């Protein structure tokens, strides 16, 4: 998930990696363009981006936005439906909402085989 969240251009200089293949090689500088796993702010930034996406797209994906706003734990979306047709309608809506922000919903799990 972190690698799908871009960092603002002006902040990218604060995410650099210095690298060399061996002690006699010149040092190479790499600039990271996405949120880096392991940094103090990574979890917050990733979850906040998903929350903001749900807020911004609420008018286009009302039910899916509510699911993202109230049923996420880190990078997992946990939700259920009372009837099968509701779940079958909500899953594509969630996929479209997340795709609009550059995310991909995968690893679906259900106790109903048709979902």
Question: How is this fold's topology laid out?
Answer:
Blueprint: E1 16-19, E2 28-31, H1 42-56, H2 62-70, E3 72-73, E4 76-77, H3 84-100
Antiparallel strand pairs: 1-2, 3-4
Helix pairs in contact: 1-2, 2-3
GO biological process, one term: DNA biosynthetic process
Protein name: Reverse transcriptase domain-containing protein
InterPro entries: DNA/RNA_pol_sf
Describe this protein's structure.
The chain is α+β, with helices and mostly antiparallel strands and 115 residues long. Helices cover 36% and strands 10% of the residues. It folds into 2 domains: 2-31, no CATH class; 42-101, no CATH class. The protein has a two-stranded antiparallel sheet. A two-stranded antiparallel ribbon has the order 3-4. The longest helix has 17 residues, at 84-100. The two termini are 24 Å apart.
What are its keywords?
alpha+beta; two-stranded antiparallel sheet; 3 helices; 4 strands; DNA/RNA_pol_sf
Q: What best-fitting shape do the alpha-carbon axes yield?
A: elongated
Radius of gyration: 18 Å
Uncertain segments: none
Amino-to-carboxy terminus distance: 24 Å
Tell me about the biggest sheet? 2 strands, antiparallel
Q: Provide the spatial order of strands within the biggest beta sheet.
A: 1-2
Q: Which structural class is indicated by helix and strand composition?
A: alpha+beta
- Count of distinct strands: 4
Order of helices and strands: EEHHEEH
Share in β-strands: 5-15%
The residue fraction in helices comes out at 25-40%
Average pLDDT taken over every residue: 91
Number of domains: 2
Q: What's the helix count? A: 3
Organism: Araneus ventricosus
InterPro entries: DNA/RNA_pol_sf
Protein name: Reverse transcriptase domain-containing protein
